[in-house]
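Course assignment 3, question 2. Fill in each field.
Student: A.L.
Task: Predict the tertiary structure for the chain below.
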Amino acid sequence: MAETNLATQKDRAEQRVPESTRGGVFFTPRVDIYETADELILYADLPGARSEDIDLRYEQGELILHGRVPPRQQNQDFLLAEYGVGDFYRAFAIHESIDSSRIAAEFKNGVLTVHLPKAEAARPKQITVRSQ
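Answer field:
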């Protein structure tokens, strides 16, 4: 059991490093995704981003998230610098059971919330059982 926890912590530490994709350096935002009967809800941490700098789009079965973060002040002598500043990028494959025409999002306090409503056919239905 301890080996699993160590591997998970190691993986998390490695994910904090910016990855080089799409011709630049991007951070991979941390996300939480959970499911309700009607939708999937995705929470993404985008510290330093502003709502007008977030590009969220659905293209060909893929949800693409790109957040631009302005650089902080240059020419500062930091005593300690652990906080990396840069753009965010992440893409998710979206199943056809999601109604892409109703995807909605809001951004508050550095957290992007994306609502991915299920198509009517994919929602669970209660079936009434009659007695005879």
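Instructor remarks: The longest strand covers residues 39-45. The domain at 18-73+83-120 is CATH 2.60.40.790 (Immunoglobulin-like).
Grade: pending
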